[in-house]
Specification:
Length: about 375
């Protein structure tokens, strides 16, 4: 019996390490690498809510909070201003960890707008949201009617305005991690549209597919109302609150494998992880290991300022008998250890945009 237990343990240790290696980007033997998604999850799921329909703030925002989940709202800023609570509701939404993206002022087909109108429809919501909700950077876009997602000029315009990605309203998701084969692909993210007729089994299957593929899945919701239609939210593709709750409860059971985050964070993480590099520097101090984490892609640097860079989950591989690390610091500041076993240590660090200019050095220390 004991022999069997030892054998099982060895196998388990080997499988765990092998899994980590295959899940890591820029993996280097005996050093480690960058996790494909935050917290080393297998896939990312983003819930998006369009148009700021009347049921979204009173029903969806508290429900997300109840399940400790976050989402991205793509409001028409004109709709926010028409409600009694106005911008207070938008501020509260962001305080709960959600994101506000840009869905224009009045919902036009942006491919049919003359240049000056295009500026107004896209520029004004950025200025308004950033003025009224300063903690929310407007870096995500959703095309009204999906128009523009296949148009190179629209994509170029969005990139020039600092958007890191954009969501369409249709298209089967590419469940694989390699969903952005070229930069434009970040601006034509497909989505699974939810409505009254969507079966919960379809919702579940989408999530299983993205877990298997390791990529990014977005869901698109519009109107949400309760059984009494208390908010008269019948604008488009209404989903009942009870159905939404069932879907969120299921999603919650999958969070061991799935990173549920905002659209902006998912895109930023994917962009960064795909072009970041982890380098181990020789340490002169015994019981310490030193690393530098930086972005090596020039295009990324012109698009994303350092203030928007999100932390990346890092796994450092330990050699046999390396022992236990008691702290991880980045630029002298302690950062939490997310996980540690005999074979690896996992934590989250922010990459720097410059390799040599004030590198963000990560230091592992033992007592
Ligand atoms: Zn819309």
């Amino acid at each position: 019996m004991r022999k069997f237990v030892v054998f099982v343990c060895i196998c388990f240790a080997m499988v765990t390490q092998a899994q980590n290696e295959s899940n890591l980007l820029a993996f280097q033997k005996n050093v480690g690498g960058i996790c494909k998604w935050d917290y080393d999850k297998k896939a990312a799921v983003v819930l998006t809510f369009d148009d700021w329909t009347p049921g979204q703030f009173p029903l969806v925002v508290p429900t997300l909070k109840q399940y400790k989940l976050v989402a991205t709202f793509f409001p028409l800023t004109n709709n926010i201003e028409k409600t009694d609570l106005g911008w207070k509701s938008a501020q509260k939404t962001v305080e709960n960890g959600n994101e506000l993206g840009n869905h224009t002022l009045t919902h036009p087909d942006i491919t049919k707008l003359p240049d000056e109108k295009l500026e107004t429809e896209i520029e004004e919501p950025i200025t308004l949201i950033e003025k009224k909700v300063p903690d929310n950077a407007v870096i995500s876009f959703a095309y009204p009617y999906g128009a523009g997602a296949e148009n190179p000029q629209s994509i170029e315009f969005l990139r020039s305005k600092g958007f890191v990605g954009a969501r369409s309203v249709w298209g089967m998701s590419d469940y694989s991690y390699n969903f952005a084969k070229e930069d434009d692909d970040y601006y034509r993210i497909h989505t699974f549209g939810m409505n009254e007729g969507t079966k919960n089994t379809q919702f579940y299957e989408e999530i299983q597919s993205v877990i298997a593929g390791g990529g990014l899945l977005t869901f698109l919701y519009h109107s949400v109302d309760d059984d009494l239609n208390s908010y008269h939210d019948n604008w488009y593709a209404q989903v009942k609150l009870d159905s939404l709750k069932t879907q969120l409860r299921f999603l919650k059971t999958q969070t061991k494998d799935v990173w549920v985050t905002t659209f902006g964070n998912a895109i930023l993480y994917h962009r960064e992880a795909s072009c970041a590099k982890l380098i181990e520097n020789k340490s002169d101090i015994e019981k310490e290991r030193h690393f530098v984490l930086y972005i090596k892609n020039e295009n990324f640097k012109t698009l994303v300022p350092q203030t928007l860079v999100v932390p990346l989950s890092i796994i450092v591989i330990k050699t046999q008998d390396e022992g236990t690390y008691t702290s991880v610091t980045q630029n002298g500041k302690e950062i939490p250890i997310d996980k540690q076993t005999n074979s690896f240590i996992q934590f989250r660090a922010i990459p720097t945009l410059e390799k040599n200019n004030n590198p963000m050095e990560i230091c592992l220390k033992k007592m």
